[in-house]
Fold:
Amino acid sequence: MMLQFSEVVKVFEELEKVSSGNKMRVILASFFKNCPLKSIDKVAYFSLGQIASKYEDINTGMADKMVVKAIASASKNSEEVITNYYKKSGDIGETAEHFIGNVKSKLSVDAVFDQFHKIAKLSGAGSQYKKIILLSDLLKNCSSKEAKYVTKIILGTLRLGVGDMTVLDSLAITFTGKKENKKILEHAYNICPDVGVIAKTIASKGIKGIKSIDVVLGRPIQMMLAQRISNIQIIKEKIPGKIAAEEKYDGERVQIHISGKKIVLFSRRLENTTHQFPDIVRELKKTIKTKNCIIEGEIVPIDPKGNLLPFQTLMQRKRKYEVEKYTKKVPICVYLFDILFLNNKSFLRRNYLERREALEKIVKESKIVQLAKQTICNDIECVEEFFNKSLERGCEGILAKSCATDSVYQAGTRGWNWIKWKREYSKELIDTFDLVVVGAFHGRGRRSGKYGALLCAVYNDEQDQFETLCKLGSGFTDVQLAELPKKMKQYVVSKKPARVIANKDMNPDVWFEPKVVVEVLGAEITRSPMHTCAEKEGRGFALRFPRLVRYRPDKKPEQATTAREIKNLSIA
Ligand code: ATP
Structure:
């Protein structure tokens, strides 16, 4: 049985109308039920507005000008006509819907998917022109509604409000009938963050198949995270035995997959960042003694003597062009601290000491590739001494890691096996939070024409929803303020996204699809009827006096501070 693309489009139209996450899950679940196995992964990607898993780095490589050209060619209109309409509507999908669609479509999901991938594969000289032709050919066979979604997926601007977790929830409902099984799916997703693979596996092999999903070289693993504490003594309560104190470097987390000659680097968001760090890749080839492993570390900027530099310096390396030139201008090094896979075996279930030993064996240290500095402690005095030394070296603090037999690598989990202790905590300043921007209020007076404040939310990972915590209006530079509306424009949606939970009296002037993460410093956590973070009896948690610290482009919205963390902090 071939699944028609028009069926998917019908469901997307429905999803665009719903205003609750639960309804969304029910709609998706009932659709998955009737999806042929062959197409279920493709439908899962499409519902996220993607054509593959993010880590695969497969992009159509088309800009809106090229899509305009394809619409013009397919609809036999001049480019000018299409451009004018697009300028007025501001929406590529609506433009395509208006001009395309004189045919009764027979397109299958697979045919659309294949055409997207053909477009993505084209590169090099003349490829732009060929991409336009392929898209135009596809559009000629689309109904108007189909054209709307095809163009949005091509440009990556489909905003249905569906997230990876929404898809997992829906799959759990469809194929196991039990909500409790969601945990098993989430666990598999942490090891295999590819909803397409999860969808196909559960549809073909059921929950048993999901349980046997394992690490695959080249496919990133969700990174293990650390808990925060308010008093250094708590480390001893949480880690009763030996404590490995490691320097906490303030840079960019990297997961390195080495398979033969191929080396791939993944960021915290599990995006392929190999092209950004050719110097690290070259050095890894010389310093890692195996050709089959997954290791993790932190990339940090250094001065010519190898001293650590502030995190901000690393930002200069985030570029598309002149990457090689900047390897000299902004030297970096990587401090390795974990190993997750070696010689075709998963190391996730090995304890910390075993993993560290295996890591030390395969690394021949150099100036650019080093092991994270570490010491094993029996008491807090030792941890504190190491912490002070780490600060002197320019680190932002330490990680205290459990060495117990159960100190396994908890993929995607913020557990008590890793605890962070930072300079800010020791000075009793409140820590920062990573919040998701979900709305904005227009500014007045000096800020008219700009945003006056942003509505920010935490992620509730149990309910897969975003709950508001504060209105953020300070900490912005004038330049940041001026740029905000332009930066956020691509995420504007016409109504509150289904997975955003806000008080009915909270009415921002614009709503955003939850995409952008900001790091925010606050003074105090209180209860407020205006916010919905971990809400109980009509009152949620709220952050008082929030200030913007920086944007966190390295974090996905689902990696923001969770409602549970806020709740735990306010109790502690
Ligand atoms: P922060 O904003 O404090 O850096 P985070 O939310 O990015 O924290 P956490 O899980 O809270 O992430 O802290 C762990 C992070 O610290 C890791 O993601 C990694 O990037 C970084 N890090 C630096 N040094 C180490 C180390 N030795 N072991 C583990 N992680 C380290």
